[in-house]
Amino acid sequence: xxxxxxxxxxxxxxxxxxxxxxxxxxxxxxxxxxxxxxxxxxxxxxxxxxxxxxxxxxxxxxxxxxxxxxxxxxxxxxxxxxxxxxxxxxxxxxxxxxxxxxxxxxxxxxxxxxxxxxxxxxxxxxxxxxxxxxxxxxxxxxxxxxxxxxxxxxxxxxxxxxxxxxxxxxxxxxxxxxxxxxxxxxxxxxxxxxxxxxxxxxxxxxxxxxxxxxxxxxxxxxxxxxxxxxxxxxxxxxxxxxxxxxxxxxxxxxxxxxxxxxxxxxxxxxxxxxxxxxxxxxxxxxx
Length: 287
Fold this sequence. Notes:
Layout: E1 43-46, E2 49-52, E3 61-64, E4 67-70, H1 76-83, H2 102-115, E5 122-123, E6 144-145, E7 152-153, H3 157-164, H4 181-184, E8 216-222, E9 231-232, E10 243-246, E11 262-265, E12 274-275, E13 279-281
Parallel strand pairs: 3-9, 8-12
Antiparallel strand pairs: 1-4, 2-3, 4-13, 5-6, 7-13, 8-10, 10-11
């Protein structure tokens, strides 16, 4: 166990960190599951705004339109309900789905949209049924997202970070909901080498659970430099080889679970520490 403030190693039984005197809380303490794991993820509306994206003030000022985001990562129960299979290694219907590559996350979004009578966001040309395309096929780099459609999609990287930081609330925390990682995230020091039920740590101020830790989450964007120029509702680079993943996981250290840490993976990448959550464009943006 480590101190959530300074990172010093703690011995069982310590009530205060010997280095910085921060009170020690049980690292693996969990609350009762605070979300209802129904078949269709519950969406939280998030009002748009402006924020500084990245780790420091040298990074860019970004404006984000209003959108909705699922209150927790997509669970194994939710994924299996739509896709009729569960690819996860760390089984539990209330656990986040994992071992899902970027292509499968996109296919889930389209299938969920169709099931709810909504317009799919993703297509290759005129085709929205992407299940026939091999995941290793370079054609996946040409998938387009219709951000004006009313269906489900992956969040952009900007949307993800804006939501993790509390949206217009502009929470100053380095993790989503607290500066004490043990309160809000399952990560390498407290996870017991596994995912956990979603919604058992505290949410951030928007009511979003597990934005940091449990599983890292796929975003829409290709991985690229943030840059320093102000941007309006960015969707990332137009091409690339890696897709962005955010939030860190049960496997990662504290730094990798911060709201500003960035990493990428090949779209065919699969891991028991990698899942996703979903977003929707709010109709007010396209009226």
